[in-house]
Write a structure and sequence with these properties.
Blueprint lengths: L1 E3 L4 E5 L4 E5 L36 E12 L2 E12 L3 E5 L6 H9 L6 E5 L8 E4 L13 H6 L3 H4 L7 H13 L15 H15 L3 E5 L7 H16 L3 E5 L3 H7 L2 E6 L1 E7 H4 L2 H13 L10 H4 L1
Parallel strand pairs: 6-10, 6-11, 8-9, 9-10
Antiparallel strand pairs: 1-2, 2-3, 4-5, 4-7, 11-12
Length: about 300
């Protein structure tokens, strides 16, 4: 990949051809023109999500030219925009689009290779993060109550004991997710749906203002999905910011007012009804198909000097 951050142009070798384009995308929601095209831009305007002066007074989370990479190979490529405080946003895209990598960067578990995530004055304890179920080890001998009570650690610290009030709140959280009386059960004995309910109960106890969910409804039953979606909508109704990586496009259309469609880069970001157009979804598939796995990070000004 050869990039010029002064002229905002980029050439990336795909499996068949090389392509150059101006990286400044039109305000939208917009998508890239049909075909495999790529950018190395520092100022992307998406569906009214342009940053003004690098900050937004109403944004809970702002992405500023964010690139996240594995061994200098970008999984998330030059994304700028903002998640408004109190918004309910889905992150969607083809397999390998960088969705989980992006939410890890927002959560702070992965560092940007370029750009930044601006969380404003949000403290770590005010951000609740639920990774994919496959990343959670259920073999450790923990009870359901122990697992849920971990949500209180951000507020009590590592050296203080849980109180009776915390035990009461744990019970209330389990009751809210439909697992009343499960406190003494081992997490290893639970079904996938029951375990996901436990993890949502832990988020309830954390009482976070920003909630990040990575594929929260994968491999669980329909009733659990329905119940947990009700909880997500309740969080949104309380003014919390909820960002979820999802695969089910119809589910997104029905329940998530805002959507970021990506394929390593942002394709479109804004109102779900406009973002999830047939044209934008086709562009996302094209981009995922033609992105070269050998593409490296764009050179920064510092690296070229």
């Amino acid at each position: 990949m050869v990039c010029n951050t002064v002229t905002n142009s980029c050439r990336l070798l795909s499996r068949e051809n090389s392509f150059c384009l101006d990286s400044r995308l039109r305000a939208g929601p917009i998508g890239l023109e049909a075909g495999p095209v790529f950018s190395c831009g520092a100022d992307i305007a998406l569906a009214g999500h342009r940053l003004v002066g690098g900050h937004s007074m109403s944004a809970a989370i702002a992405l500023e030219n964010l690139t996240v990479a594995y061994e200098r190979r970008p999984a998330v490529h030059h994304i700028s925009g903002r998640f408004e405080a109190g918004s309910l946003t889905a992150i969607v895209g083809p397999n390998g689009a960088g969705k989980s990598t992006l939410i890890k960067a927002i959560a702070g578990t992965m560092k940007p290779a370029q750009g930044r995530v601006d969380r404003g004055r949000l403290a770590t304890r005010t951000i609740g993060y639920l990774p994919q179920a496959a990343e959670i080890d259920r073999s450790f001998p923990l009870s359901v109550a122990d697992t849920v009570s971990m949500g209180a650690w951000h507020s009590i610290g590592p050296f203080r004991s849980l109180t009776r009030n915390h035990a009461r709140l744990t019970g209330e959280a389990l009751s809210t997710v439909g697992l009343e009386g499960f406190e003494g059960r081992s997490v290893g004995s639970l079904s996938s749906g029951q375990f996901q309910r436990v993890l949502f109960a832990r988020l309830l106890l954390q009482d976070a203002s920003v909630i990040l969910l990575d594929e929260p409804f994968t491999a669980i039953d329909a009733r659990t999905t329905r119940d947990l979606l009700e909880l997500v909508r309740a969080w949104h109704g309380q003014g919390r910011t909820v960002i979820a990586v999802l695969h089910d496009i119809e589910q997104v259309r029905q329940h998530f007012p805002q959507t970021l469609l990506m394929a390593r880069e942002a394709i479109a970001w804004g109102e779900t009804s406009q973002v999830l157009s047939a044209a934008n979804l086709r562009k996302a598939r094209n981009m995922a198909e033609y992105w070269s796995p050998d593409a490296l990070l764009c050179d920064s000004e510092d690296e070229r000097s």
